[in-house]
Amino acid sequence: MSHIPTAGAGHVVITGAGTGIGEACARLFAARGARVALVGRRRAPLERVAAETGGLVLEADAANAADWARITAQLEAQGGIRTLIACAGGLGAGRATETDDAAWAAAMRTNLDTAFVSARACLPQLLAHRGAIVLVASIASLAAGPAVCGYTTAKHALLGLTRSLARDYGPHGVRVNAVCPGWVRTPMADEEMQPLIAPHGGTLDEAYARVCADVPLRRAASPDEIASVCAFLASPAASIVTGATIVADGGSSIVDVPTLAFDRL
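The structure assignment produced for this chain is given below.
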């Protein structure tokens, strides 16, 4: 089992901690003895996770610098920040001609600004602890799905942010890595399944089976599986790993799409 910094070693700050991958990270890190600080815009989900993990609830917008000034001051007085797991994100649907300025700005804010502003705010304390950052990106960081221009662009940019931070702060002992999940069974992904369910009927399980039909492992990940990858990257077991993109997609990104026709023979 990977070792995660324990109670005396500062906080693990998790954005988007109320649901999905962020919630799974909170549970895993807390189970392994870490002090978790739960950041999110909605208090109720954070309090639910805090009740099970003993985490500190920090209601905030991860893309808001003023909110981070408050958070970092509070955490510095309580042992500081050792690790940042940036899970906050959202959608960015529509082709370019269907994406107005407001929709574009929203996609950048929810998927890129949340990570950048979080990292910028936490870095002074991460430097003091020689800590780690894990940015939760997506296989949309590597390829383009249909009609998700804003989301795809922002997720691609997360890899540039990962590499820039790793290059600049590695000499000071801070490691920065990205995780690129494929389909993960989260509330947000469940919503994305609805267009597949509505015209064809069937169940949520059947919708996931359809989107994973050409994935080598033939299934979506659980949030816990992605949390385990994040925990490894944050741990001393990954002490030489920085600037890396770890793809956790069941093998979907390795498929040679033009050869799929041969599978139908």
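Interim note for the steering committee: Residues 7-182+221-247 form a domain with the Rossmann fold fold (CATH 3.40.50.720). The longest strand covers residues 175-181.
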